[in-house]
Amino acid sequence: MICQFENLVSSKERAILIRTCKPPPHPAITYRHSVNIEALPIFDRLGFECSQRATAAFGLPIKTELPAVMLSRMGPGDYLVRHADNCRQDVSGNWVPNHTPHRDFSAAYYLSDDFEGGELYFPQHNVTVKKQSGLLTIFPSTQHFVHEVKPITKGVFYALLVFMEKVNKDVPTLPYHLD
């Protein structure tokens, strides 16, 4: 299941978060510990709200670890290859844990509109998410939700990324890979 919610971030908050992203040549990811004091409460509110929305949507208690909230900036030519957020394929094609196996759900708040390209694509489900400012997209981090970000062709795209964990790791994430 891929969940979407609209208009969760005000235009003022989006502007503050975008200003927080350092321009090139700085890294394209800005972590919570390096944001300005004006952006910190927005990070925290959106991380908490995201876990509440995910809990309601998936019927599981879900938590956000605040260090797992980050800003992303992508410019022309930038893209993300097909991947899952908590596992990777080994040389035999088997799915194995990656460097972030604790992630159970992934989310992105889209912060900007003045760009072209950058669609979020889930090939297994033939779903394309056209990014629009204020939209929140939440999905399981597993190999059942492999995704990619198509190349940005014009402008700069900004998003607040949130990675969440189930409170009870013994509860399976399934059947969400079937939706």
Walk me through this protein's architecture.
With 179 residues, the chain is an alpha+beta fold. The protein has one domain: q2cbj1_9rhob like domain (Jelly Rolls, Sandwich). It contains two helices and 14 strands; from the N terminus they run E-H-E-H-E-E-E-E-E-E-E-E-E-E-E-E. Strands 1-11-7-14-3-2 form a six-stranded antiparallel β-sheet. A hairpin with a 4-residue loop joins strand 9 (120-122) and strand 10 (127-129). The radius of gyration is 16 Å and the shape is globular. The model has no long low-confidence stretch (mean pLDDT 86).
Q: What's the architecture in CATH terms? A: Sandwich
Spatially, the strands of the biggest sheet line up as 1-11-7-14-3-2
Helix percentage: 10-25%
Principal-axes geometry comes out as globular
Radius of gyration: 16 Å
The description of the largest β-sheet is: 6 strands, antiparallel
Number of E strands? 14
Key descriptive features of the protein:
single chain, 179 residues, alpha+beta, Jelly Rolls, six-stranded antiparallel β-sheet, four-stranded antiparallel β-sheet, 2 helices, 14 strands
Concise structural overview:
The chain is an alpha+beta fold. 16% of the residues lie in helices and 37% in strands.
Task: Indicate the topology.
Blueprint: E1 3-5, H1 11-20, E2 29-31, H2 40-58, E3 62-74, E4 80-83, E5 87-89, E6 95-97, E7 105-110, E8 115-117, E9 120-122, E10 127-129, E11 136-140, E12 147-149, E13 152-155, E14 157-166
Antiparallel strand pairs: 1-11, 2-3, 3-14, 4-12, 5-6, 7-11, 7-14, 8-13, 9-10, 9-12
